[in-house]
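Risk register update: the risk of archive-format incompatibility is retired. Evidence:
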Amino acid sequence: MARKKDAVFLAHTFDDCPPSGSSVSDVEVAAWFEKLLKKKWRVLSGKTKQARPIGDKVADAVDDSRAIVGVFTRRFPMDEMGDRFVASPWVLCECAYALGRFRYAPYIVAGFREKGVDPDSLAMLTVGGMEFPEFDRDNLEASKPEVLAYLNDLEARIHAGGLGQLPLPITLPYAQVRLEKIHLVYRNGYGTIQNITEMVIRDPERFLNEHQGSIRHRIRTYRGKLPPLMEMLETPVHQRKTAPFFHGILDYHRSKSMGTPLQVMPVEESTTDVAFAVGFVDEAGAPLRLKANDTVRYQYAWGLPGMFPAIEEDLAEVVRGQVDSDTYCLAEVTANHGRIEKVQLDIRFEREATGGRRREILSKSPFWQIGRGYEPNPVWSEPRPVPQVRGEQEEYDMWYEIFRLGLVDFDGRVRIAWRPASQK
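Archived output:
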């Protein structure tokens, strides 16, 4: 059975009266663009007659689309000379609606601008760097090569997950809403990392068919060696402070408490880097039944001896401000699943030294940097201190010294670096 074509929403006016000085109406202009669009997609618009309010009809069509293509024809003059125009407010509203319908919806707003339409009047729609090629309504065929090239680029963006105005890759049928990542750093160098994640499943059908109902994650260590993931899964939780382990559970589905084990499947493994996928099951062990916009909250934790240097002498000297895994202990978060509404990154250092003695924990307090880019060595921002948590979470204050970084609308890469106290 042939795969159903993706849909795009065509936003345009329905004025069938040609403007002064032209013999081509807005409806005819829209029909020309629609013909080209239909070669690649199913084309939806607000013109189909239905027994319900126009707002509901447009809303559903936009929600069913992978992109919105606006045809911005001249509507109202901006000056007395009549050289600059704004487009139809209805078309602008439909495109703006697409951007705001769901904060995490994977929409690209693309389009074409009639010569004379002021580009600044489309400013909100061009936030993500999307361009709107010009056309001449009286000579549409002359614009055809440029229009086709533009549509090919749009098609590539949709299929390859390229970015439009929103930071969420088009290919993902889910959105990450919240991430809480907790590093426990013990005096002996053992470390555990706990990830608490909240996801919204936007398109259950694609999630099940294209992603097999699972979400990929990755764990990485700069020191020590990771054993096979399945071996880590076999380690009992009560041994988590002495041996490599991995453990994961599904906390909530919608607002219902679950407490069911995560299905964990290795994807690619090395001694320093493991990619894996997590799936979700209900209390009976059957695959979780998901509906559009369902929320799942789950967590996984893992630990490894020797994950962090125990003393400063285990690290190289810092030369000219060098920050890397040789000179610092590092904790990182990368927004691999698109923009995250809220990120909380904790570094919790074990307070007590041997025999109840107290000694310094750090020689260089934690600082954080934002990475510009996702490559192995991005351009990092200037260091900024990580706030220390005081007077909160009393149950931890006796055991841990806590540093916490909070970020909102996070869509990049961030790292925290620190150096342990010297043995001297």
